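pasting for ref
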Amino acid sequence: MSKKIRLTEAISIGIGGMVGGGIFAVLGLAVAFSKGGTPIAFLFAGILALLTSYSYVKLSNTYPDRGGTVKFINQGFGKTIFSGGINNLLWVSYVIMLSLYASAFGSYAPNLLPFTGSELDFHIYASAIIILASIINYYNIKVVGMIESYAVVIKLAILLAFICVGLYGLMGNPNLEQLSPENWEAPLQLLTGGMVIFVAYEGFELIANSAPDIKNPEKNIPRAYYISIIFVILLYIIIAVVTVGSLPFEQIKTAEDYVLAEAAKPMLGQTGFTIITIAALISTFSAINASLYGGSRVSYEIAEDDELPHQFTYKLWNQPIGLLVTAILTLTLTNTLKLESISTAGSVGFLFIFAMVNYVGYRLSKETKSVKTIPIIGFILCTIATIVLLKQQFKSNRMGVIVAISIMVACFLIEYIYKWTERKNSKK
């Protein structure tokens, strides 16, 4: 019998999933979009995550399953080409998240130990960390869990210390006026900023995979979702306030990929820069470790549900073959796409998936004893957010939009071809 997960552990799964490498990777991007309104952009994205979590709470309690989101989509739409396409998109979105974390690792690491002093350092570090995490996943799954549990404590301690010192350092800082409303971008641009960095919140859905093992689920599942999301919303907003209030916009732009470390400099000098860089490396490494494990499990679950070829249920060195495929795809994306394109593609993927989970929540509201209006509002807002993000990004980051749409089309096309081939073979 598996050990039951207590409330505190369930909350730390949610927080750990969200405060992975996301905040380190996308903070600079958020400021580039929203300027002084960056805290509002994080609030927008957080409200969307909180609304969606209502559907996750109800579905997790009614259909507890280690497949999590995969199970909910199949429950709502049946095992069709549509549900298979969404589940394939979930797996690919894991790969995109992994690329985002690896990109953050590759951006922060050369600040501590440069090899060539050129862009090559980024590719060396980003690729090396994916390979190392893959080896650890193959070596021993217990090590992955152990790294994750220590990393959650370390990164939260460092981020909370950064906040405390940062808020104290804001007093009398001339950059504080950057937060005033005249330095905010237009409301639509703030919304776009929030949606581009929506990936920083997606990790709460990992609680769904733990639902069957959570102690006293009726009470603890809702608490785990809501407490973890509200805590992370507040954490991100305060981090955004400290960053925008500490550094001039030009400096934030220059250090866009490692802005959190740069924001520690005014208060703590080079020591602060180094501490935050180390926190970023620990965070992104633990996030890569956990997401590689999660990604390989998602592909395994999808194949078990007959929505991917059965070969994905095969084992290689005692792990699902999906682990190797996930690692290879991550290496390819990380070394070919820019951070903004990766973030856009990830946000579009998760916004669409969450829109569908909200729709399932609405559709199954009788079975889950839900208030119908909350999931339908979540569905409408996620859909609008996806459209706004694609439309706004098409002007400034056409490549990101092309990548995002191509990935979505490919996920559904692959599912269609697979189902068509299966039908053909069964007739024979």
